[in-house]
Amino acid sequence: MLSHHRARFGAPAACRALLCGGALLAAFALPVQAQNLSLDEALSRVATSDPAVAANAARLEAADAAILQADIRPRDVVGVDFEDFAGTGPYSPLSQSQTTGWYERTWERGGKREARIGAARADVAIVGQQNRVRLLDRLARVQAAWVEALAAEAAIPVAEARLTDLKRVELDVVRRVTGALDPWFAAERARTNVAQAEIALEQARETARNARASLAAWWGGSGDYQIDAAVFQALDPSVPAAGDSADVAVLAAEITAAEAKVKLAETGNVADPSARVGLRHFGQGNDLAVMVGGSIPLGSKAANRGNVERARAEQRALEAEVAVTRVEIGREIDRLVADRRLIASEIKRIDEEVLPSASRAVRLISDGLARGGTAFTFLEFSQAQIAAHDARSRRVELLRRFHLMGVRLDRLTGRHAALIPTMENAR
């Protein structure tokens, strides 16, 4: 009796233990949902791990070293002259020789040293602005990879819808073939279309995986994340707020450097005197004498006039190029905005006119085939279904182009320039 009671009592406990264990196993077996990745998150990851930052830092270090070099004045010179230590007649004995040891220094005049340092600092500013352009270009490439990943994800539902429609029609066609309403080749053609749609769906999914992996490669991660498809469907053809153009900033830095080079070239018009002092030893009599000398170049203005004119011409060319660049950037922004508006208009018409009509045609023909009527053929359905699929694919491609144009707009207007300090501090 006691053993029977224990058996009755132990059975529910064992069941509860099995249920708890099963629940735990099921909980661990549930797949972990991949993290949603936004554009800001992708750019932030690149901003903190991009190896290009180290290359930019090395360029700045090289430019800073040029400032150190520019601060060095002309080196002093120490020399020794031997005179009359060998010859004929009275100069043949070594006792007639004269030996002079001397020290020479050159004094820079006209602000040459300050002008060199100023030119080197201007070059550092150019390198800094060029680094900003490189980083903005890399961020634009990351954003373009993000758009490509969005487009690849958006192509999957299109391929899935096509496969679903073709499978449903394949069943209808098989029923019609068995009912002697359609020839056997129609069923084979339907099977072929289903097989092709399955291949297309597999390729769409693989393309999406590759696009995610390509995007994650920018920060050395894996493609185990998701992208919000709603972002891809959003259309905002407005003009982004324009900031300071990085390309114009490079030219502005080059103009400043050109001004510094003009000043440096002008300092060449001022001659640099040098002075020499030495001690001469006379072999005959073993006497010593102090010698002093100096020199100054002649005709300095004429000798450096070409360098001055060249530096001024380069400065004028850069000033003109700034105006040209501003106009070109403005034109490209206007063109991109106009093209994006055209694309948004076409997408709107596809949504309001093309897709409803194409879907209605597919549904009508599908219903007709399912009822067993002879008003429609499989060829007509295939054509209608292809038209609907092409409209959906066209819509995805238009969205892709729309967002890629947005990438270029963001690059021209400097939308992501705020990330540059983060990238520079990451080194």
TrEMBL record:
Q: Which SUPFAM superfamilies match?
A: Outer membrane efflux proteins (OEP) (SSF56954)
User: Which keywords appear in this protein's UniProt record, sorted alphabetically?
Assistant: Coiled coil, Signal
Q: Where along the sequence do coiled-coil regions lie?
A: 187-214, 301-328
Signal peptide start-end: 1-34
A Gene Ontology molecular function term of the record: efflux transmembrane transporter activity
Kinase listed as a keyword: no
| Protein name per its UniProtKB record | Metal transporter
